[in-house]
Specification:
The complex is a heterodimer of chains A (291) and B (465). With 291 residues, chain A is of the alpha/beta class. Chain A folds into three domains: 2-89, Elongation Factor Tu (Ef-tu), domain 3 (Beta Barrel), CATH 2.40.30.10; 94-216, Rossmann fold, CATH 3.40.50; 218-291, no CATH class. Chain A is 30% helix and 28% strand. The termini of chain A are far apart. Chain B contains 17 helices and 18 strands. Chain B has helices at residues 16-19, 32-39, 49-52, 60-68, 72-80, 86-92, 99-102, 114-127, 150-161, 178-181, 190-203, 220-225, 257-266, 291-302, 322-331, 434-437, 442-464; strands at residues 12-13, 27-29, 142-146, 165-169, 207-209, 231-234, 240-241, 254-256, 283-287, 306-310, 334-336, 339-346, 352-365, 371-375, 381-384, 387-390, 394-395, 429-431. In chain B, the strands form five sheets. Chain B has a five-stranded parallel β-sheet with strand order 5-4-3-6-18. A five-stranded parallel β-sheet of chain B has the order 8-16-9-10-11. In chain B, helix 14 (291-302) links the parallel strand 9 (283-287) and strand 10. The termini of chain B are far apart. Classes of the chains: A alpha/beta (291), B alpha/beta (465). Chain A binds chain B through residues 23-24, 27, 37, 41-44, 68-69, 83-89, 222-223, 225-230, 232-234, 239, 244, 258, 261-262, 264-266, 269-270, 273, and chain B through 171-173, 181, 210-213, 216-218, 239-241, 243, 245, 249-250, 252, 255-256, 258-259, 262-263, 267-268, 273-277, 279, 350, 397-399.
């Protein structure tokens, strides 16, 4: 069950995997996510879906090694199996529900940051299959960690930018969006997926530019089915659960300051476990929580 | 020779001071001598009121008679006619308001300890290796059961005994529903009790597919049209947590009891071996007075916290089982009754630093028959704490109802189902347990699962005729 069919490093700390999960492959739509557990003692980790192939029964995930759990997942090889692989969870992008004519008439700009590129790819590919080629700004800190560039370019009008100017437009995704806007490009909607800080700044800019903006939130979760409430966030003054009400929300209504604060909840514990996982027997302090 | 003692044979428990620091089971149960002595207190009434008090109508005097005769296998067989999960029910049923509440011995003195005897029979039978036997004849019909909690396991077990080919779909990675994610280890051991009871259901031929979220991974209509299931039972429980909607609820250190308990119970976060983190609070305030509140409070206590239960009504109105309240007090949980939270405060880093509460008085009875709590103006006061756990009850998850055509729900989101047959508004789809009633008890859900199994059998048999 949930066998890893393919594993590839997209960058030194970013991994792509194709995983056997027929029920998810058959039912997934862009915008949805899944939950994976590496082994019997593992945490439930929410991940976005990059691609899916109903015929082969496989689902593609892309994740960055950021903590103990993703470090362990990255140690798994082709042929290994995840203990659990659940989904598709959350609501699909509402673009999937629009009448095709309306969708084809829309001017869309996607903004992908870091591993947020993976879920953006799922949306762009779906749109491309439905005759829509959207603009897409793909940002990375530096050229070396830019992922899936060819794949993205094949299904969108791609504009790449790097914070350090090592490739493409010199600057972050906001600089790139402002540049496109100044060149006269107008959009009916921006869809931004990436680190929370990036989505926050994109929303500040699009508010000024009066462009409706959708963001995809990835807060702390346990079950991912609406049961625990750990993923709650404030959207337009109301409490929403990212797992069942989202993960996509109107970015201009999301309380980012609070959402970013809530991400810190288990930070020290995660960090401690990460160090332990990496250093194994050689771990003797340094994580801030042990002696 | 009847035992005329007015009081129950006392049951052995872990010392409160010791158990407050571990997750081992609190109640140690009866041994053979104790169980047989207690069994002798049963008068074997001609018209046993205890049976009427049992939602699944176990032949209580019948099994107790077998205990008197030292025939545990016989006692287990009697219980098995009505219940698939006796080791669980013996531990978590609110006996005081059901079987034991009706017992005539309770009029003068204490009722027979029916729950403890049921547990004794189930535990001993398990130790003796007694397993239910699968039916010899299969009828070739397929039934899907959604959810592996008490209602689903009971419905599946009963249908399998009748010869149906049953598959349970469970959204989480472990089967058991609330028995696994909700009720803590110290009250209901997972490996020793819950897993074994589930193995017994599997021994009847029931298949369990975990990691399938019905409504997402597959829809009810797909199960019936594409996967060939002749009927579906929905026992998806009431898993959505409620919050109070008071200021500060988004602060770091505020959890739903569901999250806190799921981390500890399902993910095993109470043990250092688990990689799932859980907050080890210094001082925790648990809001609510039900079993879930007691479970969350006693979990936080075991993880090292001083724990206060804040409940807006009085001692009499606490909805938790009496035994849980008693155990919680013994362990040192502080009860702040007739108290209601007003606002949660956070420090400059966003972490909980305290909670403002208001004192309550009791007014006229409300629709639940309990006296309505009324805030006493100007009585606000602060409790300093670093963690707040909300245990305010739960509602059914809309995932299945919202993705199933023709399935009606009421205004509270509960699936509308016939009480005697479990039939919903959609042909071939039955429902029971908390998904229908809203959050209730394990045994009521089992009763509903049982009724639905009968309803499904009658409906499918009628189709052939």
């Amino acid at each position: 069950m949930f066998k890893i069919e393919k594993k590839e490093y997209l960058a030194s700390n970013i991994v792509l995997m194709d995983v056997q999960a027929p029920r998810i492959a058959r039912n997934a739509l862009p915008g949805q996510f899944l939950i994976v557990r590496a082994d019997q003692d593992g945490e439930r980790v929410p991940l976005t879906i990059c691609d899916y192939d109903a015929e082969k029964g496989t689902v593609q995930i892309v994740f960055q090694i950021v903590g103990a759990e993703s470090y362990r997942m990255a140690q798994m090889e082709e042929g290994d199996c995840f203990a659990d692989f659940v989904g598709p969870l959350g609501r699909p992008s509402d673009l999937c529900e629009l009448p095709l004519e309306e969708l084809q008439a829309m001017k869309l700009c996607f903004i992908a940051g870091g591993v947020g590129t993976a879920p953006v790819y799922a949306q762009l590919k779906w749109l491309h299959d439905h005759g829509v080629t959207a603009d897409c700004i793909q940002g990375a800190r530096t050229k070396d960690i830019l992922i899936l560039e060819d794949e993205m370019a094949a299904v969108s009008n791609l504009f790449v930018c790097t914070d350090d100017g090592s490739y493409g437009i010199n600057g972050n995704v906001c600089v790139a969006l402002q540049k496109l806007y100044d060149e006269g490009r107008r959009y009916d909607r921006v869809i931004a997926i990436g680190p929370m800080i990036m989505m926050k700044f994109v929303c500040q800019l699009t508010k000024e530019l009066h462009i409706p903006t959708i963001v995809s939130m990835n807060p702390i979760m346990v079950d991912g089915t609406g049961m625990c409430g750990a993923c709650r966030l404030m959207v337009g003054g109301e409490v929403k659960f990212a797992c069942v009400d989202g993960p996509e929300f109107d970015g201009h209504l999301v309380d980012f300051a609070q959402a970013m604060q809530r991400m810190r909840l288990y930070k020290t514990e995660e960090g401690r476990l990460y160090l332990e996982a990496q250093e194994g027997e050689t771990h003797h302090g340094g994580c801030g929580t042990c002696g | 020779m009847a035992n005329n003692m007015m009081l129950k044979v006392p049951v052995r428990e872990q010392d409160p001071l010791v158990r407050a620091k571990n997750f081992d089971e609190v109640c140690l149960g009866y041994n053979k001598e104790e169980a047989e002595a207690e069994a002798l207190r049963c008068l074997n009434c001609k018209n046993p009121r205890c049976v009427q008090g049992c939602p699944v109508s176990i032949d209580i005097p019948g099994f107790i008679q077998k205990v008197k005769e030292s025939d545990v296998a016989g006692a287990y067989a009697v219980i098995s006619q009505s219940s698939a999960l006796p080791a669980i029910c013996g531990r978590v049923c609110p006996q005081e308001s059901q079987c034991e509440g009706q017992c005539v011995r309770g009029i003068k003195g204490e009722a027979v300890a029916i729950g403890k005897l049921e547990r004794y029979v189930a535990d001993t039978a398990r130790e003796m290796g007694i397993r239910p036997t699968p039916p010899s004849v299969k009828n070739g019909k397929k039934v899907a059961v959604i959810g592996s909690g008490p209602s689903g396991l009971t419905c599946a077990g009963d249908l399998a005994r009748m010869g149906y080919d049953v598959t349970i779909f469970e959204a989480l990675h472990k089967a058991g529903g609330v028995l696994v994610y909700g009720i803590p280890e110290f009250r209901l051991p997972k490996e020793a009790v819950v897993e074994k009871e589930i193995e017994n259901v599997k021994a009847l031929g029931v298949k369990i597919e975990t990691d399938v979220v019905i409504g997402k991974s597959a829809k009810v209509d797909e199960l019936m049209k594409e996967e060939g299931f002749d009927a579906v039972f929905i026992g998806s429980g009431a898993g959505l947590p409620r919050f109070m909607r008071i200021p500060g609820e988004q602060a770091l250190g505020v959890f739903s009891a569901n999250e806190y308990l799921t981390r500890s119970n399902l993910m095993g976060a109470f043990s250092p071996a688990s990689r799932t983190p859980i907050m080890h609070a210094r001082k925790a305030v648990v809001v609510g007075g039900g079993n879930v509140a007691m479970d969350a409070a006693r979990t936080a206590l075991r993880l090292g916290a001083e724990v206060h239960i804040v409940y807006r009504r009085g001692e009499e109105e606490l909805p938790a089982r009496k035994e849980e309240v008693h155990h919680a007090k013994e362990e040192g949980i502080i009860f702040d009754l007739l108290t209601n939270p007003v606002e949660i405060h956070a420090d400059e880093n966003g972490w909980v630093s305290g909670i403002t509460c208001i004192r309550m008085g009791l007014g006229e009875p409300d629709e639940s028959g309990r006296r309505r709590p009324v805030a006493i103006e100007g009585s606000e006061f602060d409790i300093e704490c670093d963690c707040v756990i909300m245990a305010l009850g739960t509602s059914p998850n809309p995932l299945i109802a919202s993705t199933t055509s023709g399935l009606d729900v009421n205004r509270r989101g509960c699936i509308i189902a016939d009480e005697t047959t479990g039939a919903s508004s959609k042909e071939g789809v039955f429902a029971g347990g908390d998904a229908v009633t809203g959050a209730a008890t394990v045994i009521l859900a089992m009763g509903a699962g049982k009724a639905a199994a009968k309803g499904i059998d009658e409906w499918l048999s009628g189709k052939d005729a």
